[in-house]
Amino acid sequence: MNGLIDAWKTSNLVTIYLVERLPLPLWPMAVPGAPRRTVGSIAAHLHNSRCRWIKALGARDGILPPPFVDLRRVRPPQLVRALSKSSDGIVRLIELGADRGGIVPRSSWQNFPTDLPHFVSYFVAHEAHHRGQLIMLARQLGHRLPAETVNGVWQWIALRRKAATTAR
């Protein structure tokens, strides 16, 4: 179980790393082909999606989600704080699943198996998908991110090491 929690926490660090490095002028820009969505709303969706799943899977067991963020108004510092809180909720769901023999509770609607490896894989894949979207959108909207940022989302060991030294 600790390995799954560590993997989730590392994925969350990568998401936060990218959110902190998206240029602020990019946040309100409309997504080509989907003008009601913005770069910021896609970033905020990560937290709000976590919150929906935390509620759907954990509420019966006392795991309550943090508040949603406003898809249109949230800014990076607020979102980073919110992502940290929703990450804690995902960790609590992993712990709940471990206490239940490696199975998370089912929700009324669920599109992934309830075993912990699938649960964690699903959430990591969801976030990786949207991180890729954000990087591509930055390019499409004329805000090509520095190579250090784009490559940084793949530097999981370095991000974990930096987080461990900052936490001390």
Question: Which helices and strands, and how do they pair?
Answer:
Blueprint lengths: L1 H20 L8 E2 L2 E5 H20 L17 H24 L16 H25 L6 H6 L3 H12 L1
Antiparallel strand pairs: 1-2
Helix pairs in contact: 1-3, 1-4, 1-6, 2-3, 2-4
Write structural notes for this entry:
The protein is globular. The protein is mainly alpha-helical and 168 residues long. The mean pLDDT is 95. It contains 6 helices and 2 strands. It has one domain (2-167): Four Helix Bundle (Hemerythrin (Met), subunit A), CATH 1.20.120. The relative contact order is 0.18. The protein has helices spanning 2-21, 39-58, 76-99, 116-140, 147-152, 156-167, and strands at 30-31, 34-38. Helix 2 packs antiparallel against helix 4 (116-140). It starts with a helix and ends with a helix.
Briefly say what this structure is.
This protein has helices at residues 2-21, 39-58, 76-99, 116-140, 147-152, 156-167; strands at 30-31, 34-38. The chain has 168 residues and is mainly alpha-helical.
- CATH architectural group: Up-down Bundle
CATH topology: Four Helix Bundle (Hemerythrin (Met), subunit A)
What spatial order of strands do you see in the largest sheet?
1-2
Instruction: Give the class-level CATH name.
Output: Mainly Alpha
**Helix count, per DSSP?**
6
Task: Return the string of H and E elements.
Answer: HEEHHHHH
- Give the overall silhouette: globular
Mean pLDDT: 95
Strand content: under 5%
CA-to-CA gap between the ends? 23 Å
Helical content band: 55-70%
**Could you say which structural class the secondary elements and strand pairing correspond to?**
mainly alpha
Count of DSSP strands: 2
Largest sheet features:
2 strands, antiparallel
Could you list the spans in which at least 5 consecutive residues all have pLDDT below 50? none
Number of domains: 1
Could you give me the name of the CATH homologous superfamily? dinb family like domain
